[in-house]
Backbone:
C-alpha cells in the first residue's frame, strides 16, 4: 500500500494552486511528440493536460488509489485512450517502450531516500530513452526562509486541508503530514544539492 492511497481524494484539492509547472511539461511533451513516460503520474495533474494536447502518456505510479483518480480524470477530460496507466516503482518502471521524453514532475524523486535509490531511478529513466532523449524532473533544496516559515506548524494549505512540515537539516529530510476530511498521511522527503544531482545524472549516463 502506498502512503498516497489514503490521500488520493485529498490530493487534487490540496495541490489545486500548483499550476505553474503544467504548461512547461505540456509544451515539452508536444515538442518531443510523444509518447511520454511520466514517473509518479499521480492523479494526472500533468498527464491529463498533456493528453488533452494530443500526446500519449505512459504513466507509472506506486499508488493504486492515485491511479484510480487519474483514470477518472482522464475519462472526464475525454482522453482515457491517450493514457496508459501502470502500477509500479519509478526505480524499476514496468515500461519496455523507448521514448524521447521521460518526466517526473512535482518532486517525485524526493521520495528516494539515499544516493543508491536515486541512482537506481535515474539509471532506469535513462534506460527508457532513445538516443538524444531527455529527462525532465523537479526537485527542491529548501531555503532558510522556507524552513523558518513552515517548520513544526500546521498550516491550512487549502480550505479544510492542512499540512505540517518538520525539517531535519542535518539529515536533509522533510517529514510532511497532510490531512483533510477524505484522508491523511505522513511521508518523508529527502533532498540533496543540485551539484549532487548533477553528479548522479552523470553516473547514470546522462
Residues:
Amino acid at each position: 500500500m502506498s502512503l498516497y492511497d489514503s490521500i488520493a481524494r485529498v490530493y487534487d484539492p490540496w495541490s489545486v494552486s500548483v499550476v505553474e509547472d503544467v504548461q512547461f511539461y505540456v509544451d515539452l511533451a508536444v515538442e518531443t511528440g510523444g509518447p511520454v513516460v511520466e514517473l509518479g503520474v499521480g492523479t494526472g495533474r500533468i498527464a491529463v493536460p498533456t493528453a488533452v494536447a494530443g500526446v500519449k502518456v505512459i504513466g507509472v505510479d506506486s499508488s493504486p488509489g492515485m491511479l484510480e483518480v487519474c483514470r477518472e480524470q482522464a475519462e472526464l477530460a475525454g482522453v482515457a485512450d491517450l493514457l496508459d496507466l501502470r502500477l509500479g516503482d519509478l526505480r524499476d518502471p514496468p515500461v519496455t517502450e523507448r521514448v524521447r521524453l521521460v518526466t517526473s514532475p512535482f518532486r517525485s524523486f524526493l521520495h528516494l531516500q539515499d544516493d543508491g535509490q536515486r541512482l537506481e531511478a535515474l539509471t532506469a529513466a535513462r534506460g527508457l530513452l532513445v538516443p538524444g532523449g531527455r529527462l525532465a524532473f523537479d526537485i527542491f533544496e529548501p531555503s532558510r526562509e522556507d524552513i523558518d516559515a513552515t517548520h513544526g506548524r500546521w498550516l491550512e494549505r487549502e480550505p479544510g486541508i492542512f499540512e505540517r512540515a518538520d525539517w531535519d537539516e542535518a539529515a536533509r529530510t522533510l517529514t510532511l503530514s497532510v490531512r483533510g476530511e477524505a484522508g491523511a498521511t505522513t511521508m518523508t522527503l529527502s533532498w540533496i544539492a543540485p551539484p549532487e544531482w548533477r553528479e548522479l545524472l552523470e553516473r547514470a549516463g546522462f
